[in-house]
Amino acid sequence: MSAWEISLGASDEWYTPRYIFDALGCAFLMDVAAPIGGGPHVPASHWLTASDDCLAQDWHGMVWMNPPFGGRNGLIPWLDRFFSHGNGIALTPDRTSAPWWQDANRRCDATLFVAGKIKFERPDGSVGKSPGTGTTLFAVGAGAVSALLRAETRGLGTVMERMAA
After folding, report:
1. CB environment 34-54: b (16+ within 10 A), e (fewer)
2. I need a labelling partner for 75 at 20 to 30 A (CA). Which of 3, 41, 65, 137 fits?
3. Does pLDDT of 26 surpass 60?
4. C-beta separation of 79 from 64 below 8 A
5. Domain boundaries, the chain
6. 88-106 burial by CB neighbour count: b if 16+ within 10 A, else e?
7. Where does the chain show beta strands of DSSP type E?
């Protein structure tokens, strides 16, 4: 059973709203955790869905990753794969005290704390209720960091960059 299948049963299909991508102002080569039916707002050339066993596929170029949020520690395999790929932006819940979040924050090149709570969209276009937590965007790679900094200037949130050791 793939990590997607483990997480999939614990969550519904939700799309990242277009304004997030407008603020980032970039295109992605791949959406590596696309909702079934594709993510209509994700500016990507290729999409991997649950039927593709996303974590086992080759990832190329700058990726967008909004993985399934279900299950305790269900994000860990996704984040491990994301950081081993080393180029892209990952959207996660803003759980700053969770060990997986702390690890991701140490491994990324920049973190954007999204201002306000993102109301994700259902496949039919309806907007969900305000979630119980905020959202973090983790960036790895120069292009991804530039996108987070651009999003900050456009009011999406506040960026924290890693300092060189």
Report:
1. bbeeebebbebebbbbbebeb
2. 41
3. yes
4. no
5. 3-161
6. bbbbbbbbeeeebbeebee
7. 28-31, 44-47, 63-65, 88-93, 110-114, 135-140, 157-161
Task: Give me the pLDDT at residue 40, please.
Answer: 61
3-class state of residue 47 by DSSP: strand
| Most confident by average pLDDT, 70-74, 99-103, 128-132 | 99-103
pLDDT of residue 46: 92
- Least Cα distance to 92 among 165, 83, 152 occurs for 83
Secondary structure of 62-97 in HEC code, one letter for each residue? CEEECCCCCCCCCCHHHHHHHHHHCCEEEEEECCCC
Confidence of residue 39 (pLDDT cuts 50, 70, 90): low
**Residue appearing with tokens 């259902």:** 122
For 3, the 3-state DSSP assignment is: helix
Over residues 40-44, mean pLDDT: 81
